[in-house]
Design goal:
Length: about 400
């Protein structure tokens, strides 16, 4: 396994490389432009050196991302001499590039000959050294028995089609359904008659709506202040197929209770009014901050094996409300690939949907994910509403054929 053949990387270095390559793969970013600081049409002040590019390539090879690793080595090869770095030579970089291009044959047929021609154009020929000799011998194994695609960075249980659809929609393709409408919603509640909710239809079936101007700038600031001391790195999720640790969500998150700040209790009441559901067993507010490259892979919100019972009065997550707490410069869409819909994060708005059908079964169409942040950061607040107490209070989940006109809109 190649993991033993390269140096270990610190957690911070791994996170930075994962973020860069995540952006590169999702948004089809060119390696040369990315290393020159160009991200999403904006040039950053930081420029990566040849040594940085080699380090990225070594980490990618560790994860069996050989095709991508070769692109980083080609960039390193083009700039190593001009930088005057005495710690490495063009020959050293070329040796690694030659070996990685051979290893890439197990990942993509016909890749190695192309890279070999690239090396010949530099009048450089492969000469094994201590760092690449073992890898060279491994590359000679044409059976590729050592190759393990489960080590790749996208280790989440997603099919190739799901990856393709997710990435395509993160780039804004396609644009989603047409002919949908906006509505003022008040449910005939006196408190909402003068200030109704502003709902924009996103999908009719299953019902997904975007609520505009539902949280103020002042409330957002109060929530951020209440959550700052509670933020911590997101938990590691395990792939149930491979039993390998994977970073579904790349962010910092914290939980804010209603008792932590007046704004939290106020938002809980507002969500109850919006959803027209009881909030007795709703979860705490989850505040999350996604930095550059931060994302949440495709998933569904319902909890596994969560039934309503005397020992578990809260029950299943029947609905999700996600508030967008800032404007995201580029990226960060919420994507529903099975519905061909991507929701752009707009500060002060919230996206709302039901996770289960009227018969309490999971609605698999609500598969969704958070696209990587291309520029800036992304702050969100998640509120999950549980099924406990809904029937006692006369609340229910709408049937699709009754939604939205007979449920949301008046």
């Amino acid at each position: 396994m190649l993991v033993d053949e390269v140096e270990s990387f610190t957690e911070d270095t791994q996170g930075a490389i994962r973020g860069l390559t995540r952006l590169q793969k999702v948004y089809n970013l060119d390696t040369d432009r990315l290393t020159d600081g160009w991200v999403g049409g904006t040039q950053a002040h930081s420029i990566l050196t040849a040594a940085d590019c080699v380090e990225v390539a070594q980490f990618l090879s560790q994860r069996h991302e050989f095709v991508l690793a070769t692109s980083w080595l080609r960039t390193a090869l083009s700039r190593v001499d001009s930088e005057g770095d005495t710690t490495m030579s063009q020959q050293d970089v070329a040796s690694q590039l030659y070996v990685y291009s051979m290893l890439a044959m197990c990942e993509q047929d016909g890749f190695a000959p192309l890279l070999s021609q690239s090396l010949l154009s530099h009048d450089i020929f492969y000469s094994p050294n201590a760092a690449t000799a073992k890898l060279y011998l491994l590359a000679l194994d044409e059976s590729c028995s050592w190759y393990d695609p489960a080590l790749k960075l996208d280790e989440v249980d997603m099919t190739e089609d799901e990856h393709h659809s997710f990435n395509k929609m993160c780039r804004g393709e396609p644009k989603g359904p047409r002919g949908l409408k906006c509505h003022y919603v008040h449910y005939h509640q006196p408190s909402l008659l003068l200030a109704p909710f502003k709902l924009e239809e996103v999908v009719i079936s299953p019902p997904i709506v975007l609520v505009h101007q539902v949280i103020s700038d002042t409330e957002i600031q109060e929530l951020k202040e209440a959550s700052l001391s509670k933020l911590s790195g997101c938990e590691t999720v395990y792939n149930v197929i491979t039993s390998k640790a994977s970073t579904y969500r790349t962010c910092d998150k914290g939980w804010v209770e209603d008792s932590d700040a007046p704004v939290a209790a106020r938002l809980t009441r507002r969500v109850g009014q919006l959803a027209n559901l009881g909030m007795t067993f709703s979860e705490q507010h989850q505040v999350a901050c996604y930095g550059l490259g931060g994302e949440y892979k495709l998933h569904r919100d319902p909890l596994e094996s969560m039934d309503l019972s005397e020992t578990n009065p809260a029950g299943q997550r029947i609905a999700t409300v996600m508030f967008y707490l800032n404007h995201v410069a580029r990226g960060g869409y919420t994507v529903f690939p099975l519905l061909k819909v991507a929701v752009a994060p707009v500060k002060g708005s919230a996206v709302f949907w039901f996770n289960i059908l009227h018969d309490s079964s999971e609605d698999h169409r609500t598969l969704h994910g958070g696209c990587p942040v291309l520029l800036g950061a992304k702050w969100v607040l998640n509120k999950w509403i549980r099924e406990g107490g809904q029937k006692l209070q006369g609340h229910h989940c709408p049937r699709d054929e009754h939604f939205p006109k007979e449920y949301f809109y008046v």
